[in-house]
């Protein structure tokens, strides 16, 4: 359980591009909700820490140590989007920050607000929580370019030492390595199962392509089932157990075991192949609750599910190390240079990330105030330009007017 003082210091990175437009208004909303919920007894002190363009201009460094240290010292922080400097030998500042704090879970809740345009028929039934593994998989950045020495060496090694058929590696082969560890998979899946148990959610779906990639994605699934059955035996029931009962005793027994588990409030642990999941989540989103998946799958899934509930302008996220508590809450979109400074940016993504932060701190009353106020504003069809064009009879507000409207609706 997280220990949060009544007057916490929260470090924040303003961010590049629309970060400058959405950060201030988001903080105003949070402050108003905290006052409403707790009067003068609690208050956040926002402490700006530097990263990105602004950091480079002031310190000559895109990601100063002081910034990383502040997030460590205060445990919980928030950030706007950062642009990755071109040609500085940095893959991504966002990734660098996640790595330096070992924030192994990318958590993205997916919920719909009444009135927000959605391409699916029953968006009100959507309540999903994505746990995306943040440190491993093909995204680890271990790649070798065709024609270069390392790629050739790897090719020779695979052919000579591993006995892989040479015909499969023409001269022009590039390679990417996909590391997936038991520890890495377990800590992600453990966090997802605990989250489902704590919130009384019905299921955890392990999403994978283990039918094709047996020893990486398939192992992820198997480690997940092993973990549930060993460490959470009393609180979960797995599809693997279902299958076992079915083989040994028949379908009826298996079905009644599943029903009993559901009645007892156990979390059902199941698995679905990624491509099937992408279909199912559109056609029957109510079949899925918590989703635990690996890095690349999680990337695709996050954007698809975000589109179901209004797009990246209103999709929140957080990067969390559930073992030591470090957490950085952030909007899931980029810096959107095309609309920066124009008043068109939707601050909802960052405001909802701040709501997640308040919940993480245990400040549920304040979180609810923001959430309820946003529901009112969307129901009145007052929106920023990203949603305006798709909504009949909507009223267009600028970034800061939209935030002010939320504050007005905090009752
Ligand atoms: P980056 O290089 O930092 O990822 P990008 O150019 O890829 O930036 P994104 O931020 O990923 O831009 O956004 C993609 C599209 O979505 C852009 O057209 C942008 O204007 C729009 N967009 C992103 N965030 C928001 C937001 N909060 N409100 C409104 N529109 C947004
Ligand atoms: Mg982008």
From TrEMBL:
GO terms for biological process: glyoxylate cycle; tricarboxylic acid cycle. The modification N6-succinyllysine is found at residues 79, 221. Mg(2+) binds at residue 299. Binds 1 Mg(2+) or Mn(2+) ion per subunit. It catalyses: D-threo-isocitrate + NADP(+) = 2-oxoglutarate + CO2 + NADPH. NADP(+) binds at residue 346. The record marks 139, 209 as: Critical for catalysis. It is an enzyme of class 1 (oxidoreductase). Its EC number is 1.1.1.42. InterPro entries: IsoCit/isopropylmalate_DH_CS (IPR019818), Isocitrate_DH_NADP_dimer_prok (IPR004439), IsoPropMal-DH-like_dom (IPR024084). One of its GO terms (molecular function) is NAD binding. Residues 9-406 form the Isopropylmalate dehydrogenase-like domain. The modification Phosphoserine is found at residue 92. Its cofactor is Mg(2+); Mn(2+). SMART domains: Iso_dh. Keywords: Glyoxylate bypass, Magnesium, Manganese, Metal-binding, NADP, Oxidoreductase, Tricarboxylic acid cycle. D-threo-isocitrate binds at residues 92, 94, 98, 108, 132. Belongs to the isocitrate and isopropylmalate dehydrogenases family. Homodimer. NCBIfam families: PRK07006.1 (NF005425), prok_nadp_idh (TIGR00183). This is Isocitrate dehydrogenase [NADP]. It comes from Mariniphaga sediminis.
